[in-house]
Amino acid sequence: MPLYLGLDSSTQSLTASVIEASEDVRRVVFEHSVVFDRDLPHYQTTSGVHRHANPLVVTSPPLMWVEALDVMMGTLSRQTAFDPSRIAAIGGCAQQHGTVYLNDRAMPAIALLDPTKPLAAQLGGIFSRAESPVWMDESTGPQCAALARSLGGEDAVARLTGSRPFARFAGPQIGKFAQEAPDAYAATRRIHLVSSFMASLLLGG
Fold first, then answer.
1. How high is the pLDDT of residue 53?
2. Which SS3 state, helix, strand or coil, does residue 139 take?
3. Nearest-5° angle of CA 135, CA 133, CA 160?
């Protein structure tokens, strides 16, 4: 009977759930969480994030998410509750609105990962921005206001996009980075949401 692995990269942890599923059976066979503060203390997060001198700025190190995935896969490979070769598919989700910024070394590095070496050691140099703004970040008010002005007001933005501009959204996060760190932004070749970044790590591309 096939097994299915679900990964949830939340603000505070990475959780894996393995389920056995058929027409007659729905059963959780394994669950485990890598809690960032507890299991990866060298990133010095509090509740999975870094708070800054400006209390509106809230970020997380994307390399921490990389290492958490590596730790989780090691745990899955060593457990005895099920045979990992029975996993037929992997699904994933992640915190909304966090953005990950990759430089021109990222995709070649991801495509050539060596399974015998730690992920963090191989991918430490792929980020054009060492800290990712997350959904708790509220520092992009000026960018939201500029976006609304350029499109005719908040109601106009809502009519065009389905939502008013909010500080935690990716667009204002990207705009602020481009304005405040133009050189680092110029070195950025790809911008991911946390979920699509995790998928790229699993796919190797």
1. 97
2. coil
3. 60
Nearest CA to 199 out of 2, 64, 7 is that of 7
Give one DSSP letter per residue of 28-69, joined into a string: EEEEEEEEHHHH-GGG--BTTBEE-SSTT-EEE-HHHHHHHH
Specify the pLDDT at position 107: 96
CB neighbours of 44 closer than 8 A, spacing ≥ 6?
50
Does residue 27 sit in helix, strand or coil? strand
- The predicted pLDDT at position 23 comes to 84
Identity of residue 120: A
Nearest one of 25, 64, 69 to 42, comparing CA atoms:
64
Q: Which residues pair with 51 in a beta bridge?
A: 58
Could you tell me the CATH number of the domain that includes residue 41? 3.30.420.40
Pair 185, 128: CB distance under 8 Å = yes
pLDDT tens per residue across span 5-29 = 999 999 999 999 999 988 888 999 9
Total domain count for the chain? Answer: 1
| Residue 166 one-letter amino acid | F
58: its two tokens: 């809230």
- Give the chain's largest Cα–Cα span: 59
> Residue 101 pairs with which residues in a beta bridge?
191
State which residues form the domain around 28: 3-203
Residues of the chain with pLDDT under 70: none
The two tokens of residue 145 are 């206001």
